[in-house]
Design brief:
Helices cover about 65% and strands about 0% of the residues. With about 140 residues, the protein is mainly alpha-helical. The protein has one domain. The two termini are about 15 Å apart.
Length: about 140
């Protein structure tokens, strides 16, 4: 359990750094501050690409933390709820921090994409069906 939890924490730390790294402005007009932007969504390549990347980035979060809770014997529904709420809270925190950065913008849709990714990770953990390694000598297959 420790190795899975440690892996999850390291991944979340790296993900936080990525979510808060400066980026080329792609959201609202430069200088315009929008908190948790929501509104009209246009189905475009960028929209699909950004959504896909957000989902894929959070699949490991759901998978690793659901697996870590599994080794502690947590009930399936409680484990899933805890991981989804935790991932949503982490995502909302990151999006709120992005509001303060001049090169980033916050989006409520990103929170939804990220939470969806974590939920898919939980489903992967449930589909896997067996307990992940709990010691330091074993590793994911």
């Amino acid at each position: 359990m420790r190795i899975v939890l440690a892996g999850g924490l390291i991944y979340v730390a790296l993900l936080a750094a990525l979510l808060l790294a400066p980026m080329k402005q792609t959201g609202p007009r430069p200088g315009e501050r929008v908190f948790l932007m929501s509104g009209h969504v246009t189905l475009s390549r960028r929209f699909v690409r950004d959504g896909t990347l957000n989902v894929l980035a959070f699949v490991p979060v759901g998978f690793l933390f659901a697996a870590a809770l599994r080794t502690r014997g947590a009930p399936r529904l409680g484990r899933a709820a805890a991981v989804v709420v935790g991932a949503a809270a982490f995502s909302l925190t990151a999006e709120s921090a992005q509001y303060l950065l001049p090169s980033r913008y916050s989006s409520l849709l990103d929170v939804a994409w990220n939470t969806t990714g974590a939920a898919l990770g939980i489903l992967l953990d449930l589909a896997r069906g067996s307990t992940l390694p709990t010691g330091g000598r074993e590793f994911l297959p």
